[in-house]
Amino acid sequence: MVIEEPIEEGESLRRLLNRLAERVPQLRETIFDPLTQSISSEMALVINDRVESPFQGLETLLKDGDRILFFPYLAGG
Amino acid sequence: MGTGTFPGYMGKILRVDLSRGRITEEPLEKELVEKYLGGSGFGAEYLYREVPPGVAWDNPENRIIMASGPLGGTIVSGTGTFSLVTKGPMTNLAVSTQANGFWGAFLKFAGYDALIIQGQAPRWVYLYIGEGKAELRDASPILGKDTWEVEGAIKRELGTTQKLSVFGIGPAGENLVRFAIVGGDEGHIASKNGCGCVMGSKRLKAIAIPHSRKVVPLHDKQLLSEKAKALDLNAKEARGGVIYKWGTGGSFSSLLAAGSLPVRNYTTNLYPEHEKMNAQYIRTHFEYRSKPCWACRIAHTKHMKVTEGPYAGFEGEEPEYECMAAWGPLVGNTDAGAMIMLSNLTDKLGLDVNESGWIIAWLMEGYEKGIFTRQDLDGLEMRWGNVEAIRTMLEKISRREGIGDLLAEGVKRASEKVGGEASKIAIYVQKGATPRGHDHRSIWAEMLDTCVSATGTIQSAMRLITPSLFGLPPLSNPFSPWEVAGLNAKLDGWWVFVDTLGICRFITNDPALTIDCVNAATGRGFTLPEVMTIGRRIINQLRVFNFRHGLDPALEAPSVRYGSSPTDGPAEKKAVMPYFPWMKSFYFELMGWDPGTGKPLPQTLKALGLDKLIGTF
Questions:
Q1: N or C: which end of chain A has fewer CB within 10 A?
Q2: φ, ψ for residue B241 (rounded to 5)?
Q3: Structural domain span for residue A42
């Protein structure tokens, strides 16, 4: 799923996800829980092709053109 | 007890008594089908029935049970999988370990749902299971061959060009390396708890099955076809399509970002070279072609050719994630071609890649700190990233040569024997084996699961299923002891149920669709709660077996280094050990076990239809 979303310069990822969670059920169900204000630990967070820690990434301040990817963890094999 | 034919099953078990050289057929019991379904379930039941307390792993009376399941050999993707269940030498407890490829499907086409191996052959043999003909054949011409060479050697001996599925042991299993594996179909591995060592103790080199012509009877073939297509689509898209696009190594770099990639024996969580070692790099820089398992349209497994670096020209299987973790960051290697070479070497020698990686990493940290000298290590310079030294050491371990004889005992036993500072840096679960290739200090759910698993493999915590698919809220804090223990307990049963089916776990991302496939094949009409009950039944049965065979719940805990706090990286200073005993106790309580001992309570066993186990441990 790809979402293009206008942001305010300097808006935090947390604020963006809260906005998107209101209207995108899939995001709410699998990526960001507004009730606990946390990214699901089943997902990795990639901002502009760099993996970011899910623990710190929510406070990242965004700018125009930023690409944010949620990438599921895997193990085994 | 009732027997019969059942949709999804061939209706027969093959039993091989190696001591007497006798091969017999038994009808498939109705109770087995109804209560245990197949695979891991058949293994758990036969192991409990036929391996009483006091029978050691290398006693001829130990059993190896290899079983497919009701989806085995069907058109559902990845249904060549089989479960191998035995009592293994790393923990002296049960193991239920799985391998993909073709063997499980070919077993069914030969007319059997499971194979039971007992006894010890007077001379080395291999087993050939043709349609209507099973025989033990002299294995002396193929002794010493690695797990890839065995297939070609058997084909030449039989004078056939027919497709064979051959699973067997390499030099490691022949030499009773404690963590030897059973490998086959060029890269598929039943890896845990030294199952290859058990096979070696029985002087059984390999089991070869040609592609015979029997057809698996099905309840509703048309419906199964529709559901299989839906399952394929789901598997290709699930979790962003990461396995379909990149293989199991697809999350290599994101695991690093979460502090979950194992780097240099847990001495650091920094690995800046990851972008030249991950799946995205090797798939875009090296040549590869698909090498799918039976019926698999996902085809994540690849044959790969290294095209750069000192190992350019090397060809073999693209490493799975566990191999990438072991032979990349864990040992300080930063060359992807070397990682691929070592992965293939490990499989061919017949060594478990997890235990092998951890033991090499232990040596390397010890060497760095001056705990081991070159003289201690047979002259090998075990500095981080010394690939050729790793290669030589793995060969030594597989043959129990020199220092390899000590290392062949595994990390826990080797480190305890050496003692002193060496014992403080070893990573293992106290009951005997190492974890998988992750830094579980940032994945508490997997540390807990690894320590308490009754199967010896990933029992509940595995990041292929989202809790929402089970009607559960998401895990939001991976460092909440409440959430970790709770989610593990709530999910327990699913993976062990999947292991009854004869299907690759990576296909079964959607529980509802998976169950639809099972119902289409068998006509059983299962619901999610019912299949979770089957999975929990098997978990409890294996746990009771383990208690009967001496499981000490105090040893279901990490070693000092395994349970330490990361010194850097995204999970720096996170400390699991203050909470681990409570997490374990809470998990036990939620599973219906005594919170102190972890022993299944009578009411839990009764609810699972395991009344027969009450009072037996």
A1: N
A2: 70, 25
A3: 13-70
Q: Does B202 touch chain A (CB under 8 A)?
A: no
> How far is residue B581 from each of residues B33, B596, B597, measured CA to CA in Å?
37, 10, 11
Is A4 a member of any domain?
no
CA distance B592 to B540: 10
Q: What number does CATH give the domain B12-210?
A: 3.60.9.10
Fold of B239-424: 1.10.569
pTM for this model (two decimals): 0.95
Residues of A in contact with B188 (CB under 8 A): none
Architecture of domain B440-613: Orthogonal Bundle (1.10)
The yes-or-no verdict on residue B382 having pLDDT over 60 is yes
Torsion, CA B102, CA B8, CA B457, CA B537, rounded to 10: -170
Distance between A48 CA and the closest CA of chain B, angstroms? 13
Tell me the pLDDT tens digit for each residue of B115-151. 999 999 999 999 999 987 899 999 999 999 999 999 8
The whole-angstrom separation of Cα B354 and Cα B126 is 27
Distance, CA of B468 to CA of B453 (rounded, Å): 23
Where along chain B do its domains lie? Answer: 12-210, 239-424, 440-613
pLDDT digits (tens, 9 = 90+) for B352-369: 999 999 999 999 999 999
Query: Quick check: B112 and B14 in contact, CB under 8 A?
Result: yes
Give the tens place of pLDDT for each residue, B226-272: 999 999 999 888 777 888 889 999 889 888 888 899 999 999 999 99
Number of domains in chain A: 1
Chain A residues within an 8 Å CB radius of B259:
53
Residue at A58 is within a domain: yes
